[in-house]
Amino acid sequence: MPIISRSAELSLDFLVVGGGIGGLSVAYMLQKAGHRVRVVEKQGLHAPSAGLRIPPNLSKILWQWVDREELDKVTTRCVGTPMHSLHTGKNVGYLPWKPAVMAEIGGEFLLMHRQDLIRLLFNLATEVGVIVDLDTTVTSVRPGTAHDPRPTVTLDNGGVLAADIVIGSDGCNSIIRPVVVGEEQHASASSLTVYTGTVNAHNIVQDAELAPLIAHSCEDWPIWMGDRHSFSVAYQRSSQELYIGLYVWHRPDEPSSTGEESWDHSVATEVIATAGYPPIVQRLIKMAPHFIRTEFTPRNSGQCDWVDTTGQIVLLGDAAHPSIPGGQNIASMAIEDAVVFGSLFSHLRTMEQVPSFLGAYQELRQPRCEKVGRSDIKGAELMALPPGPAADARDENIRQQLQEWDEGMLKESFEEIAEIFGYDAGDAAEEWWINWGRFHETAGEQPGVVVSIRRD
Ligand SMILES: Cc1cc2nc3c(=O)[nH]c(=O)nc-3n(C[C@H](O)[C@H](O)[C@H](O)COP(=O)(O)OP(=O)(O)OC[C@H]3O[C@@H](n4cnc5c(N)ncnc54)[C@H](O)[C@@H]3O)c2cc1C
């Protein structure tokens, strides 16, 4: 369960670097569990952003954290996805989210503005007593030493803050990650550029050809599939905005992209080459005042530790598992990390438990994040297949989805998605506690109980 009702017997000081989605969530969970938490965030509450996808495994958590009515005001429910060709503009088919499948999973597919989620999480965290320093940048982190055993972070204003544990949740361009995992080999060039932007719905209503898009996309999120390019839109009724996303995959032989893996870069709409897209897509892109441009560069580092060698600095969210920008599960993976982390530390009674809790956090979260991350990449690649047999087979499959699913198809499809969307992060943490964690204090007497942080 993502709600914590117990207070840890031993209370620690946590310093969270980065008050984004994962940072604010873990701060909320830990403070609720009786710890003292401070968050340092380099931006304010209104950093430019666009739409975030909230898959069922995350909507289930948010429904328990936030009043349902309040959440309904800032989210749009998705019931299905019309699929179009990015070459011809023609419809290929429709992928419905079957109500029977959603009911079984216990969540829904939602969309919300990142700023709205940040605001909700900020309120949750500060209401339970988390201290959040906004507009403050962490410039470096230092592990504890024999002389000064607590880890510290240095701020851009010259301040130095110490804590028992530092959580690096500073996103895809993390400065904490290299301190934990060392220097990493990146693939030589970015494999993907993602542009995200918003269009004011009032402008769309004025355009007779585009207006139906808003009416239809209230509960549908259309996707256009092209050769190494894909384009998607989703309408947010509460803010009267259309979120748009353009994915451009690079060929291995293409020159390196000049962009950066970061959400800080706004680019003019004119930099996007729209030639060859259907007129409706071109017009939509031109209506966005500007775009955030980010890149995705896969690492070659394989599995790495999320906890530093001192056991005092730990990674969470994109800093731990950098994932495809704008992916279906990026927010859900960061918040699931927070739920598992907070649930484990709600059982803290002695300092000796800390290494086993950190080890359990990584062991529970790393395989899941890798699996879900691969699925997100596969899904995005599928939308941008070059012409050929694979793209034809995909289109044929989409066409078949229009027919009513029989029981066999429903079962097959359900099994595929239940693993990702049916997951309950709080239950996973509690299961570990019941099976392993509670024996920690007598671990010496419990054969087979591993209490150290894993070091591969
Ligand atoms: C400004 C911004 C806009 C975004 N817009 C979108 C979007 O439109 N669509 C989408 O799908 N995803 C967006 N994302 C990414 C998305 O929020 C994450 O990929 C995902 O939710 C995982 O959350 P996270 O907490 O790991 O990372 P993030 O949500 O990226 O949070 C990381 C936080 O760390 C802060 N930070 C980084 N370095 C430091 C430092 N040195 N000191 C202090 N703070 C630091 C950042 O400002 C950020 O708030 C955006 C991220 C940011 C930062």
Structural description of this entry:
One of its GO terms (molecular function) is FAD binding. This is FAD/NAD(P)-binding domain-containing protein. Belongs to the paxM FAD-dependent monooxygenase family. The protein is α/β, with parallel strands linked by helices. The protein has a domain of 253 residues: FAD/NAD(P)-binding domain (3-Layer(bba) Sandwich). The chain is built from 14 helices and 19 strands. The strands form 4 sheets. The protein has an 8-stranded mixed β-sheet. A 5-stranded parallel β-sheet has the order 8-2-1-12-19, with helices on one face. The chain has a 3-stranded antiparallel β-sheet with strand order 3-7-4. Helix 1 packs parallel to helix 5, helix 1 packs parallel to helix 10 and helix 10 packs parallel to helix 14. The longest helix has 29 residues. It starts with 12 loop residues before the first strand and ends in a 21-residue tail after the last helix. 42% of the residues are buried. The C terminus is likely disordered.
| Gross morphology | globular
Helix content: 25-40%
Strand count, sense and closure of the main sheet? 8 strands, mixed
**DSSP helix count?**
14
Mean pLDDT across all amino acids: 88
Main structural class = alpha/beta
Sequence stretches where pLDDT stays below 50 over 5 or more residues: 443-456
What's the CATH topology name of the domain at 13-78 and 106-185 and 301-380 and 419-445? FAD/NAD(P)-binding domain
| Strand ordering within the main sheet | 6-5-14-15-16-13-18-17
β content, as a range?
A: 15-25%
CATH H level, superfamily name of the domain at 13-78 and 106-185 and 301-380 and 419-445: FAD/NAD(P)-binding domain
